[in-house]
Write a structure and sequence with these properties.
The complex is a heterodimer.
Chain A: H1 4-7, H2 22-47
Chain B: H1 23-34, H2 44-50, H3 55-108, H4 112-132, H5 135-141, H6 146-175, H7 189-213, H8 228-232, H9 244-247, H10 251-271, H11 274-281, E1 283-284, E2 287-288, H12 292-320, H13 322-343, H14 348-377, H15 382-389, H16 391-411, H17 419-441
Antiparallel strand pairs in B: 1-2
Helix pairs in contact in B: 1-6, 1-7, 2-3, 3-4, 3-7, 3-15, 3-16, 5-6, 6-7, 6-12, 6-14, 10-14, 10-16, 10-17, 11-12, 12-13, 12-14, 13-14, 13-17, 14-15, 16-17
Classes of the chains: A mainly alpha, B mainly alpha.
Transmembrane segments (chain A): 21-41
Keywords (chain A): Membrane, Transmembrane, Transmembrane helix
Chain lengths: 53, 471
């Protein structure tokens, strides 16, 4: 169980601010987005057989 | 159980200015990997031939994995909440990847028990810990949109199978050029062993990426412009916290368990039988009007709706509320199952559209439940509570196939069944959805006696006051 004191640890006001670069965000999303797009493409291709494609 | 300091929760508290949109890809990196569990059918036949075994004996591998998923999520949920997402994702990766490596060795040395131990037992533990690992973190980073956040992660579990199926076929084609992925060709056992080795290594990289990217918000962090009081105004949403041990003593937990069990059982009824079902529904004089390739396309379409439903419906629940969205899943689900049972065989489009929406509700039910738990029990130990709730999934994984297979076995022989043979099973699903609908209606706010004392919002009981190594 947390004590009130421990819940105040690491308050954001105690820390130096940081900046997340847009490049890192784009890289992270690309890393998961590209395989997902590959999977979606293949699923749509398979599903197209249902509509005579 | 202590964890090495580089994995500890207090090491990953985000500094002010950290962008929360890095958290969903971290969660997806794990869920996209463990979602492979739903792509095992691509090498099932190869394993049957390699081990000169039966479908049942090979199917046990998957069953062990799902049972271990439910058990490990329930048992390790509190550990996950206490030690944070990095420790959980790291541990999940170690178990999941070990499962593939041991499994690969089992296939290579033709020892089936190693596959049970590897992919089934070790991999199943990785599945359970991995599945719940990012959930409470996402809810804390997105207090304004918890449904959207958990929908994104749990959508990844559905997406994992979409990736692993074609990827596995392509890799097995490389390792065994005699296999081209078409019906009638079966990859060699060694190709499957190499596939396991490759997937294990790829998943290791991806899951570690997620583990080292993830951060937890500081206790006093709030999104810009977010007023917690605005959340409190919604029905059923609490600002209080309930521990996992107390949550399972409340009727709300067991009502929600029933809701999830009924929704998943009904969905599995279709998913389990998708390909033969569409052929059987349009069978006349012993011949189906639906070709095998078209049936495979139907399975692909269901996968898309399963994944899409997780994101779309869970996000929608942020606007209309968790209880109303489950009324849609279960209430509209009842209507759709009745349409499927009575009109499903009259036109292909009616069958396809009805089944696709039902499966989107199945996925939506999975993705929305963490946010429902957060509404009822707060964020304190929501991961652990979610882990315990997932035993409903394990139970549904047994009940769903038992119902559909039991009815169909009693009605005739596979390959000769027609639409009418499915009706008893479909009406059982209607009754189950009815039970789930009533259970959802009965859910009320959790009684005050279960609330934790204030200031238990973040389970940082292991965090010493002097630590300041935040990133």
């Amino acid at each position: 169980m947390s004590s009130p004191a421990s819940s105040r640890n690491h308050s954001s006001q105690d820390q130096q601010p940081t900046h997340t670069s847009m490049g890192l965000i784009a890289f992270a999303w690309a890393l998961v987005g590209v395989p997902l797009a590959y999977g979606l493409y293949n699923a749509v291709k398979a599903a197209s057989a249902l509509f005579g494609g | 159980m202590a964890v090495p300091s580089f994995l500890a929760r207090e090491r990953i508290v985000a500094r002010p200015g950290f962008n929360r949109w890095l958290i969903p890809p971290a969660a997806l990196a794990v869920h996209l990997c463990i979602g492979q569990a739903y792509a095992t059918s691509v090498y099932k036949t190869a394993l049957v031939e390699h081990f000169d075994s039966s479908l049942t004996a090979i199917g046990i591998i998957f069953s062990i994995a799902i049972v271990m998923l439910g058990l490990s999520a329930a048992v390790f949920g509190t550990w996950v909440d206490k030690n944070g997402p990095r420790a959980a994702m790291f541990t999940s990766a170690v178990f999941w990847v070990s499962g593939f490596l041991v499994g690969s060795l089992g296939i290579y040395t033709e020892q089936l028990w190693l596959l049970y131990l590897g992919y089934g037992f070790l991999g199943g533990i990785g599945l359970g810990i991995g599945y719940i690992s990012p959930v409470s973190t996402l809810i804390k980073w997105f207090p304004d949109r918890p449904g959207l956040a958990t929908g994104m992660a749990i959508m990844g579990f559905g997406g994992g199978a979409l990736i692993a199926s074609p990827l596995s076929r392509q890799l097995m084609n490389i390792y065994d050029p005699g296999y081209d992925g078409t019906a009638g060709t079966v990859p060699s056992g060694n190709a499957v062993a190499l596939l396991f080795l490759t997937l294990g290594l790829v998943y290791l990289v991806f899951m570690m990426f997620g583990a080292f990217l993830v951060r937890v918000p500081a206790p006093d962090w709030r999104p810009d412009g977010f007023d917690p009081a605005s959340v409190k105004k919604k029905a059923l949403v609490t600002m209080e916290n309930v521990s996992a041990n107390n949550a399972i003593k409340t009727p709300q937990f067991w009502l929600l368990w029933t809701v999830l069990f009924c929704n998943v059982t009904a969905g599995i009824g279709i998913l389990e039988q998708a390909a033969p079902m569409i052929q059987d529904f349009f069978r006349e004089n012993g011949t189906s009007a639906v070709a095998a390739a078209t049936a495979a396309g139907f399975v692909g379409l269901l996968s898309l709706f399963n994944m899409g439903g997780r994101f779309v419906w869970s996000s929608t629940s942020d606007y209309i509320g968790r209880k109303p969205i489950y009324m849609v899943y279960l209430g509209v689900g009842i209507v759709l199952y009745i349409v499927l049972a009575t009109l499903g065989s009259t036109a292909t489009w009616i069958f396809v559209v009805t089944a696709a929406i039902i499966i989107s509700f199945y996925g939506g039910g999975f993705a929305t439940v963490p946010a429902y738990l957060r509404d009822l029990f707060g964020t304190y130990q929501v991961g652990a509570i979610h882990g315990r709730l997932l035993t409903a999934w394990a139970a549904a994984g047994i009940a769903g196939p038992l119902i559909i297979n039991g009815v169909l076995d009693a009605r005739g022989t596979p390959g000769e069944l027609v639409a009418g043979d499915y009706r008893p099973a479909l009406f059982i699903m209607v009754a189950l959805l009815g039970v789930g609908f009533v259970a959802n209606l009965l859910i009320k706010p959790v009684a005050e006696k279960w609330w934790e004392p204030r200031a238990t919002d973040v389970p940082t009981d292991a965090a010493p006051a002097e630590r300041s190594t935040v990133r």
